[in-house]
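Q: Can I see a sequence and its folded structure?
A: Here is a first one.
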Amino acid sequence: QSNLYVLYEHAAGFSLFSVKEFEEVSMFLPQVESSVTDLAKFSSIVKLAGFAPFKTAIAALENINAISEGIAPPDLISFLDDFFAKLKKKKCTLGIADAKLGAALTEAIGVQCSHFGVVPEILRGVRFHFAKLVKGFTDKSAGVAQLGLGHSYSRAKVKFNVHRSDNMIIQSIALLDQLDKDVNTFSMRIREWYSYHFPELVKIVPDNYMFAKAAKFIKDRKNLTQDKLDELEKIVLDSAKAQAIIDAAKMSMGMDISIVDLMNIELFAERVVKLSEYRKKLSTYLHNKMNLVAPNLQSLIGDQVGARLISHAGSLTNLAKYPASTVQILGAEKALFRALKTRSNTPKYGLIYHSSFIGRAGLKNKGRISRFLANKCSIASRIDCFLEQPTSVFGESLKQQVEDRLKFYESGDVPRKNIEVMKEAIEAVGLETAAGAVAQPDKKKKKKKRAAEDETEANGASNGNGAAAEEENGNGNADGEPKKKKKKKNKNKEAVEA
């Protein structure tokens, strides 16, 4: 007859429960299901056989992480090994929750594992009554242990490199697109509003940002005089335009406007200017973030197109999992399904259409270059996703390959093979990492050298103080150096001893 032992992984440690009358219990599975919630009945069948508590919270996290991956941790193997060694050659079966972990344990300790039949119900009962089955344990202490480990486990699973978080890129590109729409709408509104008072300004200053700044500065056109030419020139960045604005203000056909209306226009213009400035800052932030998270994708197709691809895929990891054919039409899903439905031509490109390469290609070659570019984007995203030390070397090489392919379509110059280009890029990365490795020991050496110099200076200062004390006692010469005097004194002592 086989003895059944059930392994339960709790936040406090590993526990083994022996199940009495295993064969009989298996026969009455529906009765077991109903009696699981009854402590008196359940405790008569299940008893605690062994318990191995986790020594620290870090150990608990490491063990639980291993178990979640289906790997048998060393602590668990040693605990089970010791336990089953005491039972000697008795026939035993180990009940576990995860089949993958069971396979790993069978391989490690040679005990037969089971995860079906009565085992899930027994484990459900153990989970329900755990605090009462283990002495010195309460519901409160069990809850605290579970909460602590739960937080640590979740944090470890969610935690990524802070500097390489692609979530920030997704939010930044979404905000950037929204800001573009909003700034454009607000600029059109300020143009219409201020044009009632000064309609000629729109033709002289067509740029939205400059127009808002100029409207904020001019306010009432009647007060615009030649004295303000220099300040106006700084805003429009052109002396001829500034002079044209002053001339137009003198003979404008716009209507007069009240002070209250002007105040509102000024406030709104200020808001538009600040939004435009913030958009520039956000664009810089996105550039820096892309340089950290996906430098190769950034080098290949630029900040915004790369960020849109990551955003559309959901994450850099998801983008890395996509085949090149999916990357090619990412963003053109509606057109694809419409084409499939109507049995017409499928789209050649999606979001990657906004990269400069497809615009530069001829009409006949747009589909070809988009396919080639999608292939390179797929490679770049995979390198960025799985490379530990971010570098843009591969991105630059891939970009050059796309440039060479464009030349090939235009002039027929045969481009280099991909394997040659990639070998060169790998060598360049190797040189980079070697240079970085050399630079680090140099820094350490400099630090050690400084520390040694500080120590010698401190020792010198202490020796100087000692010599000064000797001089005061009458043993030293006023003209001599302290260190030399000390040596002489030592020589005299040696002579006396001899």
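Q: Show me another, different protein.
A: A second, unrelated one:
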Amino acid sequence: MVQLVFSALLLLLSSFAYGAPTKHCRHPIIRKEWRTLSKHEKWEYIKAVKCMQDQPSQLSYIPGAESRFEDYQGVHILQADFIHYVGHFMPWHRYMVASYERELRGRCGYEGAQPYWDWTLDVTTADSIFSSPVFDPKTGFGGNGPYVKNPNPNPPSPVPGRTGGGCVPNGPFKDLILNLGPLKNVTKNPHCLTRDISPLLTNRVLTAERVAFARGKKDFAHFDREVQGGITFDTITYHGGGHLGIGGELGVMADIYASPGDPIFYLHHAQVDRLWWLWQKDNLRKRRRDIAGPDTQFAYPYDFNGPKPYKNITLEYPLKMGGLVEDVEILDVMDIKSGVLCYDYEEMGDEE
């Protein structure tokens, strides 16, 4: 019994060790856009992701999780109702992606940084999203699933223009078996990785114009509203557009709970984080302390279903990670080169 307790403690400590933040950032790692990576760099990243999918789960309270990759997915599933349409949406996901990145490096020997996907470069024509380098079957994450009719005639989030819905047929994750989801399920439920791309949606919201509109907001409260958007097709903005544009109605990315089951989740959220950082850098002295929004999901200004009681979050608000990594406060993640973070972004054209 003592040995079992000691082993469990070691597992917990090892998860904190790989996710352990540092207060000093002398040499930030540099996140790059996927298409700027060499073939070798892309393969190394994919190899590290597959390594995370082979590492054993360390969170026993998520009964269906079989890998460290699924620990991240499972925590997101259980936290989803507390981290979307709230003021700490972006800080929480910034810390989650940075922790995942740290484990890719510390646990799986990856020497690079978490790549991002600038999807504004892939919505130039009606069908150009399908040619995005992220969907390449050899140097990307595989493509769209074959078309599958949605068995639900009244889906909760209808996505016009959806083109897939079936299992990803090619690429390094075509045989990936996900055990968690859909929705809030955290018991073992083996199923494939699905995608259901809607170019109609991606070309509508994943544009440079939408990004520029958000970046023009003068304070975090208004910027955050533009990033998170609404819950209908007409009010979706670029965060939801990345999820529903790739996930459609039947794809994993469209699942607000289980979306981290698609490895593209991390490239999309690195892009969302990059755009927040670019907005912050426009007035960094002020904006690295600018935070606002409700502590309760779907409270004002996200009160789509009516008013709810809430409190405004502050920089001292805790980011609860469910034992995945150490909890921190929002203040700790407001600067990507300070506090518990140590990375930066390379912009297209800045490559050496």
